Amino acid sequence: MAFTYACSDYPGMAPCPGRFTAKTKDELWEHIELHALVTHEEDPSEWPDDERSKIEALITGD
Q1: Measured between alpha carbons, how far is 36 from 20 in angstroms, rounded to an integer?
Q2: DSSP three-state, residue 17
Q3: Which of 1, 20, 27, 47 is the least buried, fewest Cβ under 10 Å from its Cβ?
Q4: CA gyration radius for the chain?
């Protein structure tokens, strides 16, 4: 199974082309967090639980 996240699906991030697919959710989260840090200059360790929940809800698996 693969898991996918598109940054543009997150509210307010429509113009961001970041899209990631990984074999596990843990690996996908690594990509999401690195993308947030490098591209959006956000520190994922400071994200509140509700923000992580919003991201989690946008992760799809096939």
Answers
A1: 12
A2: coil
A3: 1
A4: 11
The single-letter code of the amino acid at 12 is G
d(CA 25, CA 21): 9
Max Cα distance, the chain (Å): 30
pLDDT digits (tens, 9 = 90+) for 22-31: 999 999 999 9
8, HSE (Cβ side, Cα atoms, 13 Å): 6
CA angle (61 as vertex; 59, 62 as ends), nearest 5 = 150
Domain ranges of the chain: 3-61
**Helix (H, G, I), strand (E, B), or coil: what is residue 21?**
strand
Distance in Å from the first CA to the final CA of the chain: 6
